[in-house]
Amino acid sequence: MLDETGPPAAIDMDGWVCPMPLRDSPNIVMGHGGGGAMSGELIEHLFLPAFGSAAEAGFGDSAVVTLGGARLAFTTDSFVVKPMEFPGGSIGELAVNGTVNDLAMAGARPMVLSTAFILEEGTALADIARIAAAMGTAALGAGVKLVTGDTKVVDAGHGDGIYVNTAGIGLIDDGVDIRPQRARAGDAVLVSGEIGLHGVAVLSCREGLEFGTTVCSDTAPLHGLVAAMLATGADVHVLRDPTRGGVAATLNEIAGVAQVGISLDERKIPVSPQVRDACGLLGLDPLYVANEGKLIAFVAQEDAERVLEAMREHPLGGHAEAIGVCVAEHPGMVVARTALGGTRVVDLPAGEQLPRIC
């Protein structure tokens, strides 16, 4: 723990309350970056004790702060996807859209972004130029400015071509209060479209895997869709984009924070035939596969139909569906009713089925 009168004391791993996986692993493994239980334990047991009172309590995708009377959303993110170009996009679009979406999930209008590049020695300038051009095009499409940045170069063999770090600031209108703590029993759970596209698109580029068809990433900026939802006048309680760990990780995080149960109807969850076939071939569950252009919304049941209608009228919400409901039973747990009429628990993944997807 942090001694506020001096430098940080040694962290006592034996004193941690969660036995797995960190206390049994003295080194970082890929699962710690997967957005699942291992990521949460890394934050809870290492970073937060080390930061001490310098840290804010809520480590969400965006922080909401008030400066000079304005309500701002602030976020930062890093992108290490492998390969850096994939069907439907590249690390460039991903960096811009992912940062815009983190701001949008707080109900903010994204305004400005920073960009920082970590480049490996030997990377072709032509590759870097393509990624930079993709970022510029994505920023113009999202209506945001790239206002500051940085560049570092690391020795050959100590990077992976291009890594990108971004930060973003957005403005939040009065009356907008979107956060996971507001989920409550009775809320409808909505998803904006077919899930799993990004994870399968990235996976299709690795190890020569082919699925008989091209699956393209769904990377896209979602703030326009969010604006259309808010324009209905509905009180949107929660928004999240289910990236690392997919829909399963996102819903488990919300259920845990709000201490509500979530009941899903698997028959209503939109999954494209291509993603379903690829997941069946590889033994993956689409609920755990990453997305980069989808959102999950929690709204009061009486507002669900008009919000769904607004989503379906937007180009990025044409396949929106109501996939479940918040319940008072089994708080902190997500369960799904299967097509056969049974029920299964949708757990928080320990690490990540598909590493390095963003």
TrEMBL record:
Pfam families: AIRS (PF00586), AIRS_C (PF02769)
CDD domains the record matches: HypE
Domain PurM-like N-terminal: 61-172
Domain of life: Bacteria
Protein family membership: Belongs to the HypE family.
Record domain PurM-like C-terminal: where: 184-330
NCBIfam families: hypE (TIGR02124)
Protein name per its UniProtKB record: Hydrogenase expression/formation protein HypE
